[in-house]
Each structure stands twice: as structure tokens, then as C-alpha cells.
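Before a colleague's protein record goes any further, I have to sign it off. What it holds is a sequence and that sequence's fold in C-alpha cell form. My question to you is simply how this chain folds and whether the C-alpha cells agree. Thanks in advance; the entry in question is below:
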Amino acid sequence: MQRVVASTSWFIRALYSASAIIFTVMALLQFTRQEFNLLVVWLVLGLLSATAGAVTWLLRERKSEALGFFQIFVIVILWVCALALSGGAMNPANSFLLLPIAIAFLMLSAPRAWVILLITFIAQALFLWNMQHSSSADNALVEHYSAMSFTFFVAATLLATMIRIVRKRLENSQAKLQKLREDQLRQEQILAVATASAQYTHELATPLATVSLLHEELREEFPNHPVLREMAEPLERVKLLLKDLRSVTHSLDNNEMREFCVDELLVELQEQLTIAHASVSIEFVSEGESGASIEADHALLPAILNLIRNAAREVELIGSGKVSVHSSCEHGSWLLRIENPNQSMTEESLERLGVRRAQSESGFGIGMLLSHATLERFSGSLAVRLQTQNLVVQEVRIPLYQMRDS
């Protein structure tokens, strides 16, 4: 579409140049006929066309729809004046007014394009009215040119409508193509992260096993050593996380989907967050149906945990406030609403968050990107917005299991 607009901008400049030449030739013809009043009028029209063309060329780098509207509007007015001086509706060149109509519907938004069409219709109506009330007009010719004017109205309307429809479809196709490109880029980024994660997990397993074995041997030799007792819990925690990661990977490889009870999922979320963010106040509020369930795989829990952890980290950064997690069922979906105080996020950064990689102090927003992609796999959605300047709201929506089956 940008290429079409650039081509039509060049065409407008060419029309101004051609108009200036034609008006100058018409002025010279009036000089041979000694019609000096018309000579001046044609020269003025030629000078205006040349001036408008020069201004259009000087402003060729500016991409403004208002400027494009002004250029088309001026050329329509100049052509209407020229037609009024040379016969109006009886001038065979009357059909050239279809050119600026086509350009307007290619370049401009619908309201401005319809204004250009309305101006040409008003001009045609004035030409037709003047011809019908002229005392020197022949009745047969009046009927003939009236039919030509009517044909112009129909042709202009059809041309405008068809160009508008084609342009709308082209814009929709380009938007879909852009969306596909963004989705492909996001999938490539997710694949790269998944590949790196699998590699690091594999490399982590060996040193972890070595450390665990060394820890067990030391405990046998020094069973009462306080440092060894303190190391036991973190080591078990890392083992458990590694096991969970392997189960998630296995679930994804086999595309295993299972039913998750919402109440049990909330309990598990609370348990995980209590360990990871004991210093942050996280309030869980559950409303709606008891026993509701959703269908997902093992990647669901890490995806939601990541969202709540992001909120908890923001609270830790601010040093005050709490994270509120509201669970409810509405319109056949499970809705999880996460609220937290905000200090670092803006509307601009939230628009990119979860859709593409976004630079942040702690990384590139990969966690949000993965959470967003994971929820989409379950026919779910993630919406992040600023409720107020100091409050971020994340809304996770996943279809209920029974509703999804139906």
C-alpha cells in the first residue's frame, strides 16, 4: 500500500505539470482569437497549476494525508474551473475528473475521499443545471449531454466503491500477513529459547548429580554439621525443579493434555509462591463455581507462576504493596486476574510485552513471551494493561473444560 501511495503521489505531480502546459496552450489560443479576458483567466489557471505542482514537488518527502487531500482538492478545483470555461458537461474532457476520484480513494481515508467525490458531483450538477437553463442549447443535445452526466455519476460511484473495496481487502491481507510474520518470529524466538533451555538442563543434570553425591558422602562423615543440613533443602528443591522441567518437556513432546481442577491449581500456586516469595504479601481470592476445571498440559503452572512472580518482583522493587490474585468463572471461561503496584512499566512497554521480546533490567521479556505462547496453546489469552498509572493488571482467560468440549 505504501508503494501505491508513492506512485500516486508521483502521478499527482505529473498531472499538475500537464495541467499547467494545457492551460498555457489554451491561453495562447485565446490570444489568436483576441479573447483577452479568457487569456488572463487561462494564464492564471496555468500559473496556479505550476505553483501547486512546484509546492507538491518541494513537499514530496512529507507523508501527510492532509497534504495529499489538499493536493487532490486543488487539482479538482482547477479542472472544474477549466471545464466551466470550455463547455462544462458538453466538454469531452469532463470524464478526466474520474482520475482525481480514483487517486483520492487510493491515497486518502474514506471520509476525505468521499469529500472529493462530493465536490465533483456538485460540479457536475452545476454544469448540468447551467446547460439545461441555457437559452442557446438545443433540446436534443441537452438530452444527450444530460445522459452523459448521468453516466458520469454512475461511473464515478462504481469506481469509488470498487477501489474502496479492493483497498480494504488489500489492507486486511497486509494486516494478516504482518500478523503471520510476527507469529513466525515469535515462534522462532520461542524455539531458540526452548533449545537453549533443553541444552542447559542436560548440562545441569551432571554437575547436580555430582554435588548431590558429594553432599551425601559428607553427611555420612559429618552427620551433625549445620552447613550440610542447610544445603539439603536447596539441593532437593533444585532436583524437584529439574524433575518438573523434564516432565514438562516430556508432556510437550507427547502433546499430553489433562484436566486441571481450578481449586487444586490455586492451592499449588500458593504453595509454590510461599516458598519462592515469602517476603511478599500475595492475596488469593476465589469466586464463582467450585470444582471448575480446564484442559492443559504441564506447562500451564510454570506459565502462570511466571506472571505472578513478575508481579511479586515489582512489589519487591517498590518495597511496599501486595499482589492480588482473583480467580473467577464467567462466560464459559476461567478468569485469573493478577494486580500489583507499578513503578517501572509504561503503556508503551506493556503493548510489546508478551508479543515480542522487550528489553528489561532482568532480561528481554522472554518469560512473558513464553507465558503468552503457552496460554494460546490452550485456546487462552493474556491481557496486560495499566488500570491506573500505579496499578498493573494481568488477565489470564482459559475456556472451561466442559465448555471447550461442547
